[in-house]
Specification:
Shape: globular
Number of helices: 16
Distance between the termini: 11 Å
Largest sheet: 6 strands, antiparallel
Strand content: 15-25%
């Protein structure tokens, strides 16, 4: 991954910053539901009575009636999309005076249903974004259908020569190693620490669902014409550069637009104007309002809810194609770190990834895989080599993918071989360090007279026998002297051992930062007295933050300084390019 990259897509996953009101965006205030909207609520939810026995009580003397989920049972025009769960009702029998049992209903908020106080609040919503694109679909009989990404002149189409699963079948995560044959592109050279982009399409099933949801399934082959509206009030309006001319609607949705993107509040605000049902319109207003920020975070942003899933939850919303082109971002390539060295594997480029899995949740009735990792898994599924199994003797046709290099001039091993360095990379974060060590091993073989600095690797995973990635390689580096110190921890194995112990072991590390503390004197000595380097690769949200916090605590303890001085020391390491991160969110 590219250095200091802390929030990619999804893709595959959202960033961690909470949605906060933006004072720079003008907004307008909406009053409570109109009379018509209230009548809508009453007509659909007539069975929910106002008696305190059927309402959620806020105190012993006050009751409130929650607005029920008024969404129809199915999503119109969207085959393959299951209906979303609405307000969750827990029902328990309650005996009245006459002895008859009447159910007590407690409604809960959901993506499509809010509760007081939000459902009874006046709302401050963003101003309506001005439309700026004119879009038309034209039937063209002579148009040549394009396949694959458009900017092929900047990409390399390379075959996948090997695909191996690194984790055992019962591992929580599935990690794959793919080897690409880049020998046909001699100019495609890389260094350990570099990353590269993989260009992938949207999933065919999701593109089909979007076409049906927009009611354009019969116009998939039509040519999309996009131009600026002459009457637009949007300042500096331009047709997005990633929207090509003379392509089909099918191509546009497959290769150009990020249809899995999480809809922003401005998009929700625009969708309000294209929603016919009063209750659904009100809920979309809530989700884009200042008052509904917590609900937006909980049901949209934190769930990585896609535009398609949002439209499935609000079936009366019928946006025009122009609105999607205005608000959906470009389908971005996905970056991966090189996990090999050209010295060890000439003409080859390795990379490692976990197949991202999104569990079913509110708004997402079915679990799904990450866009690029799921696509790659499907490509190589039939040719995968599994742990402990020999490669098939047959020679199946290997798939090809489009990639482009992203040289990284900072996340590199020290140019001076005598400089010691420390690597921290749990899980697939170990990938670039495999390249570092392969390079170091070859350099030691080619230059036996050179003095090489000390190397440390802190690695961690859940289980030693399920997801210890590159175990044989790492142990080989250790035995050859390429790697001087290998510190490994197994978070779930240690957790199970601790549960069995009467007196837990104080020296057992669960995560990589714990092993750093156990080796605090060595680590700080390398960084502060030997001018060594520290490299961290992996998850930005938790691991990288914990390692950074641990490093500051170690410096405070070893140097006997306060927090401010420790922070200055860490900042100096960063400025001197001796504390480098290759992290992602």
């Amino acid at each position: 991954m590219a250095s200091e990259r802390t929030g990619q897509f999804k893709v595959d996953a959202g960033d961690s910053a909470k949605e906060t009101p933006d004072s720079s965006i003008p907004d307008v205030q909406l009053n409570l539901l109109s009379l018509t909207d209230h009548q809508n609520c009453d007509s659909v939810g007539a069975s929910v009575e106002s008696d305190s026995k059927f309402a959620a009580a806020t105190s012993s003397s006050a009751t409130q009636t929650a607005v029920p989920d008024l969404r129809p049972a199915s999503s119109a025009g969207s085959p393959g999309l299951a209906p979303q769960s609405g307000g969750i009702a827990s029902v328990s029998p309650e005996t009245q005076t006459g002895g008859a049992e009447v159910p007590h209903v407690a409604l809960a908020a959901s993506l499509t249903c809010s509760l007081p106080p939000l459902s009874e609040s006046s709302l401050n919503v963003p101003s309506l974004p001005p439309p700026y694109l004119e879009v038309s679909l034209q039937e063209v009989h002579t148009m040549v259908e394009i396949t694959g990404p458009l900017n092929k002149e900047t990409l390399h189409e390379v075959p996948i020569s090997r695909a191996a699963q690194l984790t055992r079948g019962d591992s929580v995560k599935t990690a794959l190693l793919l080897e690409m044959d880049i020998s046909a592109y001699p100019m495609m050279t890389y260094q350990p620490g570099d990353s590269f982009d993989v260009v992938c399409p949207n999933r065919t099933s999701e593109v089909e669902n979007m076409l049906h949801r927009l009611g354009l399934q019969d116009q998939r082959k039509h040519c999309v014409r996009v131009s600026l509206r002459k009457d637009t009030k949007k300042k500096g309006a331009q047709v997005p550069s990633y929207i090509p001319q003379n392509v089909s609607l099918l191509y546009l949705l497959t290769w150009c637009l990020e249809i899995r993107s999480v809809p922003k509040k401005a998009f929700l605000r625009a969708l309000v104007e294209n929603t016919s049902d009063g209750v659904q319109k009100r809920r979309l207003q809530e989700l884009c309002s200042k008052q509904g920020a917590a609900d937006y975070n909980l049901y949209v942003r934190d769930q990585s809810l896609s535009v398609l899933e949002l439209l499935a939850a609000f079936p009366s919303c019928s946006p025009p194609l122009s609105l999607l082109i205005e608000h959906l971002p470009k389908l971005q390539p996905r970056p991966y770190s090189a996990a090999s060295s050209c010295l060890r594997h000439p003409g080859k480029l390795h990379f490692v990834f976990n197949v991202v899995e999104f569990p079913a949740c509110s708004g997402q009735p079915a679990r799904r895989r990450g866009l690029c990792t799921g696509w790659l898994f499907d490509l190589v599924d039939s040719v995968l080599v599994f742990p402990g199994k020999a490669k098939s003797a047959s020679n199946p046709t290997m798939p090809k993918i489009h990639v482009s290099l992203r040289p990284n001039c900072t996340f590199r091993a020290p140019s001076d071989p005598s400089v010691p360095f420390i690597m921290v990379g749990p899980g697939t974060g170990v990938a670039p360090f495999i390249g570092f060590l392969q390079q170091r091993e070859k350099e030691r073989q080619q230059n036996p007279e050179v003095v090489f600095g000390e190397t440390w690797l802190f690695f961690g995973c859940r289980h030693k026998d399920r997801d210890y990635l590159f175990r044989e390689d790492l142990e080989g580096f250790l035995s050859s002297g390429t790697l001087n110190h290998l510190k490994v921890c197994f978070s779930r194995d240690n957790q199970e051992k601790e549960a069995e112990e009467v007196v837990p072991s104080a020296g057992r590390a669960r995560y990589v930062q714990h092993n750093l503390v156990l080796n605090s004197q060595h680590v700080t000595n390398i960084l502060l007295k030997q001018n060594g380097c520290l490299y961290v690769c992996g998850d930005a949200k938790n691991m990288a933050k914990d390692v950074n916090d641990t490093l500051m605590e170690m410096i405070k303890t070893e140097l006997q300084v306060d927090q401010l001085e420790a922070m200055k020391t860490v900042a100096r390491l960063r400025e001197e390019k001796r504390y480098l991160q290759d992290i992602w969110g």
